[in-house]
Structure formats: C-alpha cells, structure tokens
Amino acid sequence: MLKISNLKKSFRLPTGERMPILDVPQFNVAAAEQMVIVGRSGCGKSTLLHLISGIGTPDSGTISINGLDITRLSEEGRDRFRAEVMGYVFQTFNLLQGFTALENVILGMSFGRGGTDRDRARDLLRRVGLEHRLNAHPRTMSVGEQQRVAVARALANRPKLLLADEPTANVDPANQQSIVDLIRETCQEEEISLVMVTHAMEVAEQFQRVEPLEKLNLIAQANKAHA
Amino acid sequence: MSIWQIAWRSIRQRALASSLTSFSMALGVLLVTAVLLVYGLVSKSFTDNSDLGYNMIAGAKGGKLQLVLNTTFYLSEPVENIPYTFYQQFLTKQQQEEELELMKPEKRGELTDGTYAKNTEFAIPVCLGDYYQNFRVVGTLPKFFEEFKDYDTDEPKYKFREGRNFEVWNDEHGYFEAVVGSMVAQKTGLKIGDTIAASHGGDPNDIHTDSPFTIVGILAPSGTPNDRAVFVNMEGFYLMSGHAKVEDTEEVGANVTGTTISRRQPLPIKQREVTAILIRTSDPFSPIIIKNRVNEGNVAQIVMPVMEITSLFELIVKPIQTLLLVITVLICFVSGISILVSIYNSMNDRKREIAVMRALGARRRTVMGIVLSESIILSVGGGILGWLGAHFLLFGASPMIESQTGVQIGLFDLAPLPRKLEVLIPSAIIENDWIGPLFSLELVIVPALILLAVLVGFLPAYTAYRTDVAETLSSSP
Question: Rounded to an integer, what distance in angstroms lies between the CA atom of residue A27 and that of residue B461?
Fold first, then answer.
C-alpha cells in the first residue's frame, strides 16, 4: 500500500543553512494494516505525515501509494490524489467553524471527483454517535464530539489510507479510548490502511505494529547518539 | 459542496461585516441605477416627445430653448405671442378658407396662399398662458389630434379613452369644448360633460368663469406631456376675456361678458394671436428655407425642437449625469475597497481553514476561487439589493416624478440605451416589445460588479493561493 524509500527532508534555517530533519531509508505499510509511529515532540512525526499526504515535498526519495510515486506528481496532482485516496485526522480537529457537523463531513468529500454524498455523511456521523448533532456548529460541541466529527470527515471520501496526527492529544482520557476505537474499527470495516502518529504510549500499546520514529529516521538516530 | 456554497458559509460566519460591506455596495448600486434610470427615462421622454410628428416650432423671438420647453413640454414660463396672420403664412388659400369658414370671424380680409404653404405639410397653432388648477390649458384646433400620426402604424398618435375630439363649433356647446389629458382626468376626477374654467396665467383670482368649457373627451395615456394638459378649442380660448389682442382702434368685437354662448362673436383676425405653431415640413430642404426666411424677419423665429433638446442634453443634462455617474461609480468603487478590506482582514483568521481545506484535497485555485466567489457574492448580492431598491424607490416616487415631468416609471422599467448604442443593435430586436426593453444600460451593472468583485477579491484570493499548508497546520491554532 505505502512504500517509502530513501526519503530525505531538510529545512532552510534563517542563516541560510539547511537542517536535515528526516532520512528514512525504508518504510512500508501493507493494505488495511494499522500501525502507529511514536516519538518525542519535534522529531519529525508530523513532517513525515505531511510528506506522505503530499502536503509537503521531500528533498529526495520516493513515496509510493498503491504503486503511484506521489513525489513525481505536480502539486495539483497531489492535491487531487489526497482528495481521493487519503483521509487526514488532525491533532486540533481543525473543523471549520462556519460549517455544521454535517457540512464539515460533506466538505471532506467536496474536493475529489466522486462528488458529495449527503447520506454517507449522515451515516458516518451516526456511526460516530452524533446523529443528534448533525446541524450543530463546532463551537457548541464538546472536544470529544469535535474529534468524532473530524474522524467522520477524514473517512468521508472513502480513503485507502488514513493519516492520524496525534488524534487523542487534545482529548480528555475518557474520550481518548473511544476515539482510538472509533478510528480502528472504521478502518477495519472499510479496509483502510492506518498510519497514526502519537506520543501517548497507552495508545500505541494497543497496536500490533509500533514503530519508533528514531528507528525509522537516520537523522533522529544520529541526534540521539549525539545527545 | 460547491465553491459557492463554501463561500456562502464563510460569508454567513462573518454575518455583520459581510452585511455592512454588502450594504455599502447596495447603496452605491442604488445610486448608479437611480441616475441611469432617471436620466434614461427622462432622456427617452424628451427624445420621444421631440418626435411628436412635427419638426419645427414657430414662436416669438427670444429664447429658443424656452420656446421648445414651453410648447413641447409645457414647462418654463409662457413666451410672447405672434400674430394669427403669421400662422396663415403656412396655410394654402383653401386651407385658410376652410378654417375661417368654421371660425366665422367678422373680418377675414383678402386670402392668398401663405408664403410657406408649399413647404408645409401641416401647421397647428397653439395658444398658451392659461391654467386649469396646475395644468396647462392649450388652445388649439381639432387637427392637433388628427395630424400627428404614429411613425410606425400611421394611426393617430393620440387616442381617446372616452368621448371624442372637440369641435370648432358645436350646436350644444358652441365654441367651448375641451379635451383633457389622462393624468388631468385622473388627478382632478373630471369626466365627460363636466365644465371647467381656466385661470389667466395661473392666477387663482383671475378665473374665466364667464367662459366655461365642456369636457367632451379624455385622452388615453400617451406617456407624453399631453397627459397633463387641458386642450380647449382655440375659438373658445380667444373668447375668454383678456385674450383679444389690444389694439388702438375700436375694432374690438368680442365683448363676451354677459352674453350667451351662441351670441358671442369670434375675434377679428387682427386681434388673434397664437403662442406657437407646430409645423411639419413637406420635404427635407424646407426647414432650412423656412428657418432662414422667418429668422431674418422681425415677427417670429423658427426653432428645431430636436436640435434644441439635443443641445440641452449635451450642454446641461449630460454633464450633470456624467458627474453624478462618476460620483456614484466612485461610491461603488469605495464599496469594493471595503469588501477587499473586509475579506483581506479575515484572511489571517482563515489561514488555518484554508490550510485544512487544502489538506482535505482542495487545490490552490479552488481556495482562490472560494475567496473570489465570496467577493462576487458580496458585490453582486449587494448590487441586486441596490438595483431592486432603486426600482422600488423610483416606483414609489413615480407619481411625483410623473406630475413634475410627465415621465411615467414602471416598477421594472429599465434605463433605455442611448441612441448611439441603440443603432448598433438590429432594429428588429430593439423594436421587439419583449426583448427590446432588455437592452438596457442597467445590464452593464452586473458584469461591472463581477469585474469589480474579481479585482478587489484578487488580493485576498492570492493570499489564500499562497498559503503554506504545512507551515500553517504545524503552527498552533
């Protein structure tokens, strides 16, 4: 499903120097596999997700999703690919405040070729237990409810790959487990590959495959050794 | 969900700011539409009325424009009179005999073909100076309602809603028959059979109660100044006290006070005067010939109404309209700037939303399109509001405008195209009753607003286009 090889990324510092942040020789995720990447803050977890999603571009290397190397696509091609193949759950939910819960979910299927399906949006909200909050605006919803809407939105376009960036970081412990369960169950039902990034070990321990970024990323290994 | 729906939700989210910016645009468009509409309809009214069926006006020497305004539009102060004998110069001997046969003046003198008779298709005298309430009284001949024809159908230009044309002599009413315009009937409640007495020069203390006219006809609305005029038989007009030309001799034969209608004697020719003569020449060269000859003399002057009206518009009305248009367009532009400021100021708050949409797969040009759509919705929405506001406002004020200018304004009457632009469109389209009126200057408003919206929306849209998704998503909300 996802094959990464020799992926390198660096950032330009204000001084003009380039600071390497990622060097991942090999990283694969099978179809419908659920895995988690753990690591301390600032070690490049979010950057890795941005590269996989095509939001950012690597300095070198390849990222193949379903056999297509997205690093060879134009920005517009990557946008379209993301709209049709990927779902994204953010740490801070990032719901659009002017939109209702239902509209936020519909927005998740608005940018691909498939068109919008209001019934699917309703169904997803029902599955996350929010059938009674369809027309509620994010500001009137609890943190847990907002993250459920965000999960429903990420699944709206029937993705093949779901990227979840610290989805439980801003959620209270009571809601944390239900969010994780919700993501895992839905991915299982719809045979979606899941790459979750977290620093919460109680979440990571629930996954069969847990990859510390320090193990995947040569830069992180070097930094650790240097420290 | 289309980009329009997304844009609309964003506008809704900032309801107060959006309403205010849209309202300022509405105000600008209201003013532009009102200026276009009033100018267009007044211009059309003037132009249409200059095509009443005559191409020259003869009147006393003096202000040309005043003569036209007074004679064609019943505006401005009444002008001096010219002798009736001058009017006869536009008639053949036979025409003079026929008219005098009906009028039966005591002294008619020797008749010969008028100097300009061979250059004249018809000439109609009008006598002005009296009023019925606020409406002008026009003394004229029955041919006023017979000679003027519709250019396209050759039907009489003025039709009667009720009754008939007045007669020079009627056994029942004598010389005192009148026809009233549609608006006069509507405003005063006058009906067939009612009698009216005119006041001299509009003086309420100087009413010709001795010479009441009986209404025998009410005109159908024509959208011309004739809707707000009272037409009386010229012979009756002459018989009202004070209308005989004062002469040194004792040759006054029309002391009508205390006499019955049937016993009153028409004025002698020498005592007769007319205010103006409406002339239609027989060929294209005659206007120049008549104008040169008449203007060389001391008796009268000839003016071309179309020329005077055009110069009035070019010299006075058009610059005012241009100035008003410039001001109102500037207001629209300022409203556009306020839309720019409103959207641009919101961009900082919305950076994250844009980044989220991009992360969900929206392309750069999609988010740019969303912001431009917002600008277009605010501009066009405000524009439509302003356009409707202008039409409702002017429709509400139409009774006042109509009474002041004679221009009737329907709720959705569109500002007509200027003649210069009208000629660019095939006449079959322009003259079509359904499609023709749609060719309006107001149609320019919509594309102009969209253009303005795109211009003012471009900067915030470009900001959205340039949003760094990864950086924005990585930053704290």
Answer: 38
Helix (H) or strand (E) holding A62: strand A60-65
Q: Nearest-CA distance from A148 to chain B in Å? A: 16
> Would residue B25 be called left, alpha or beta, if left means φ above 0 and alpha means ψ between -120 and 50 degrees?
alpha
Per-residue pLDDT reduced to its tens digit, B66-103: 898 889 888 877 778 999 999 999 999 999 888 887 77
Q: State pLDDT tens for residues B196-208.
A: 998 876 666 777 7
If you count DSSP H runs as helices and E runs as strands, how many of each does chain B have, helices first? 16, 13
Q: How far apart are CA B238 and CA B169, in angstroms?
A: 13
Work out the mean pLDDT of chain A and round it to a whole number: 88
In the numeric block, which tokens belong to residue B113? 């073909």
Distance CA(B275)–CA(B58), nearest Å, equals 9
- pLDDT score for B250: 42
Q: Do B361 and A92 touch (CB under 8 A)?
A: no
Note whether B356 contacts A94, CB cutoff 8 Å.
yes
- N- to C-terminal Cα distance for chain A? 35
**Which residues, 6 or more positions from B404, have their beta carbon under 8 angstroms from its beta carbon?**
none
Question: How far is residue B204's CA from residue B200's CA, in Å, rounded to a whole number?
Answer: 8
CA B101 to chain centre: 38
- Strand partners for A165: A197
| ipTM rounded to 2 decimals | 0.87
Average pLDDT over residues B27-31: 86
Please say whether the beta carbons of A58 and A8 come within 8 A.
yes
Cβ–Cβ of A107/B360 closer than 8 Å?
yes
Nearest to B268 by CA among B105, B140, B109: B105
The structure's pTM equals 0.66
CB contacts, 8 Å: B8 with chain A: none
